[in-house]
Amino acid sequence: MKFDAEKFRENLAARLRRQYGKDISQANRHDLFDAVSASVQEIIMPAWMATRSQYEKNPTKQVYYLSAEFLMGRALSNNLINLGIKDEVIEVLKGMNINFNLIEDEEPDAGLGNGGLGRLAACFLDSLATLDYPGHGYGIRYQYGMFEQRIENGYQVEHPDNWLKHRDPWEVKRSDLAVTVKFGGEIKYGKTPDGQDRFYIANAEEVIATPYDMPIVGFDTNTVNTLRLWQASSPDGFDLQLFNDMRYNEAVFKQNEAENVSRVLYPNDSGPQGKALRLKQQYFFCSASLQDLVHHFVNNYGTDFAKFPELHAIQLNDTHPVVAIPELMRILMDEYGMGWNDAWSIIEKTFAYTNHTILAEALEKWDIQIFQSLLPRIYQIVEEINRRFLIELRAKFPNDYERQNRMSIIHNGKIYMAWLAIYAGFSVNGVAALHTDLLKNVELKDWYELYPKKFNNKTNGITQRRWLCSSNPELSEFITKRIGHGWEKDLTLLKGLEKYVDDNESLEELIAIKRHNKDKLVEYLKHKQNEFLDPESIFDVQVKRLHEYKRQLLNVLHIMYLYNRLIKDPSFNPPPRTFIFGAKSASGYRRAKSIIKLINTVAERINNDRRVGGKLRVVFIENYRVSVAEKIFPAADVSEQISTAGKEASGTSNMKFMVNGALTLGTMDGANIEIFEEAGKENGFPFGLSTEEIQKMEEEHTYNPQQYLERNPALAEVVEQLIDGTYDPSHQIFKELHDSLVYGVEGQRPDVYYVLADFDLYAKAQEKVAEAYKDKMSWAKKALINIANSGKFSSDRTIEDYVRDIWKVKKVVVADEDIK
Length: 820
Ligand code: 26Q
What we know:
Layout: H1 5-20, H2 29-57, E1 62-66, E2 70-73, H3 76-83, H4 86-95, H5 100-104, E3 110-112, H6 116-130, E4 135-140, E5 148-152, E6 155-159, E7 172-173, E8 179-183, E9 186-191, E10 197-202, E11 205-217, E12 224-233, H7 240-244, H8 248-251, H9 253-259, H10 276-301, H11 308-311, E13 312-317, H12 324-335, H13 340-350, E14 351-354, E15 365-367, H14 368-374, H15 376-396, H16 401-407, E16 410-411, E17 414-416, H17 417-424, E18 427-430, H18 433-443, H19 445-450, E19 455-457, H20 464-470, H21 473-483, H22 504-529, E20 538-543, H23 552-568, E21 577-582, H24 590-607, E22 616-621, H25 626-632, E23 638-641, H26 653-659, E24 663-666, H27 672-679, E25 685-686, H28 691-700, H29 705-711, H30 713-721, H31 735-742, H32 755-773, H33 776-788, H34 795-807
Parallel strand pairs: 1-4, 1-13, 4-12, 13-14, 14-18, 18-19, 20-21, 20-23, 21-22, 23-24, 24-25
Antiparallel strand pairs: 2-3, 5-6, 7-11, 8-11, 9-10, 11-12, 15-17, 16-17
Bound molecules: ligand 26Q.
Ligand 26Q binds next to helix 6.
EC number: 2.4.1.1
InterPro entries: Glycg_phsphrylas, Glyco_trans_35
Family: Belongs to the glycogen phosphorylase family.
């Protein structure tokens, strides 16, 4: 990318003048962020247009990643890096007396996702564009993204995330491509204007879907793909009659109701789901996206839909967009007059489904009542899909009525969205080797027996452009100094760093870089939270959504145990440690919220106890999100990946820690297994019960947490401290946590996630961490070995796997000459 400094400067000034009526000296930080971003957007535009026209010129297959979540974070720095003009822009701004770092911090995160699944979608888009694959995202333009978390009196309090308060400089509204999505109404059968007999819906509630496009800039390439997000609005606007009658609320009622569809991102609640508005969101963006694809197809190729699967691969990011399957059936049959069999043969070649969870309760099911009244025609189509499926199933397992019932897409009054996806699609994938094995052998065993060839693994990955180039420039320079460039697009080249694992100078430099990144995090927390951390201490970090299966509780109980030891035994002298947490809990997830309160309560106590003498500190980082994650990973020494074995589908923060040189303290779960495999177990701290051991206890009902409490008095003590007044004089706040471990509450077994069973093994692994950290050079060597072997965990590798096995798309290269 050629960069014209003079033109950029002029552009920036012109922007400020036009948009804000200011010159540079009058502009505030936000004005500057907006004008700089708009000027960058202008640089992106020609390549974006050229990419689109290349795709139009080459009728080749494209990938559409349908996802209810895209956790994009900030775009400015990332776009500059991918364009290859970051240093140049910083230079120009410096010349104008503008500090880039301050500008950068003005950008709100696009927090349109909960966690791993949403961030994975964002990493995939980056890799698709970088590798020159025609692949795009389709999702929802939530007006409010992931809530803003504040900690008040140790409790999480949620505030709305009004990320669109100012305009978003990256989006382009495409009113010309708006479509209508229909809800409710009655199914009718009758003649269309041109005399054909079709199903149609009468008296439906109509919602307008308007697309907003964001450019997805590839790294060191001209390819710029598109993330298209749909916004809901009312076709009728507000009611002027009612307004004139001074019935103001009624006047805007319909407008509000339509806009509510894309109002807010739903949390990944652990509790019962099935809210009608959530289903409305899902159908809203799936219907809009498929209408968009079909319109485009018909405009270019006419109505010979047999070609459709040759030009489209649609990846369903979990079950959230599965309603796209019957929606495409509806469009093909009701709007284009296709017969069932022809339409179905298109479906079977087009859709592929990714599963992201092993928790049975998280598999999406919809009440028939809710589904049918909201989407009557879609329900009818799902019934017909199921009728045909059951014929197939009965032929295969004629006498197995149990199985026929279990696998029926509709049973027990509910629609099983995963079943629909597996039956209709041609591919089902898990997101790590262990996860896929568990899908095949446990969770989706019935389905694997029926369709073994559909099942495949695609171990997750992360983009090194954001999680290394952008977030850790010093480590990036360290790498490039030794192995040259190239790793930005082929992370396996990091293997070349192994030459340096015994080079003291390199190890010293690595230590210095880590130290400097820790200093920067210390500085950030000082300003943001008035927290004073010791950068000499071990930074032991657990950042991820708060969930019982992720076992933040195991981490805190161990901290409470260390604290007890420090107080009782003055000769106990481990290296100083800082335990850092960052986590949001779904607003309705009561037990997760008590764990946040517990972390903060323990932190308050320990951090203010002078007897601890700087050996132990606990920090809860408020409002954990992508832009904060970018400051945390580079500063971490220890990566806490301590989920109950078999429960974390993959994990992706584990990979971000690894490329940034943190050592993994983790269970044999999800992608941790593959991380230990790549880096060598001796360069991390694996611990804990295996999936098999847990499965065995589960089957034989032999787990008795009481035994572990009896055998380990120090553990019994910390568990008792949850209710004995040590941390809470009311004895109430942590009672449910206590009882859930010891007795089981609300009909649950005690300690469902084997916290007590793994405690001792975890404490021993933590002792090894402390011991290992004493030898700085040997620690740095392990860190470098981790970095050198992190190549597998680039989302570029993941995308190549999807392309080869599932999507079968070809690269489309945009040449410099194609850009006008
Ligand atoms: C479902 C129904 C109603 C409301 C919300 C939801 C919902 C929303 C989000 C359910 C789940 C999610 C998010 C799940 C998720 O992030 N899963 C993670 O996906 C990562 C990428 O594959 C994995 O690495 C993680 O292991 C997995 O937990």
